[in-house]
Design a protein that fits this description.
Elements: H1 5-18, E1 23-25, E2 31-36, E3 39-48, E4 56-65, E5 70-76, E6 81-84, E7 89-92, E8 102-107, E9 115-126, E10 130-141
Amino acid sequence: MAMNVSEMELLSIVFVLLSPFFVVSVDANGLSSRSFQGFYNLQEIQCSGENLPPDSDLLGIVLYSVKPSLLLAAANLRKQECSTSSSYIACHLDTADTRKSKVKALVDDLTEGQSRVFGCNISAFVDGTRMTSFSWFITVHHISEYTTSF
């Protein structure tokens, strides 16, 4: 596990400290979940800037679990670096179009009836001048293998 906790913690602290200077938006949803390759008990979470305005230039992506509070990945697009906390997390950093950058995580530890909330923050320049932070949350549920129909 190639995670440098101090860098990830520092990125989170900087994000919180600079938050008053950002315009925060929650209008375009960049966080999604789905079954991974058809496996009912394996959920894939993805955070991406693809739905952001076309003039957005992404600086960073942070993916985390709300409860328990756990930082899953922190991507710095300027340095082309991504730190992760697990082997079930992947980062795709697109240098040609930063909006196509994404962080994915697999959730395999939810039991029947259990759910967990995940969050994603993306910081970006919009219009080339305005620093903006986009934040989304999603609740991921364990999907039952069996469905009942009458």
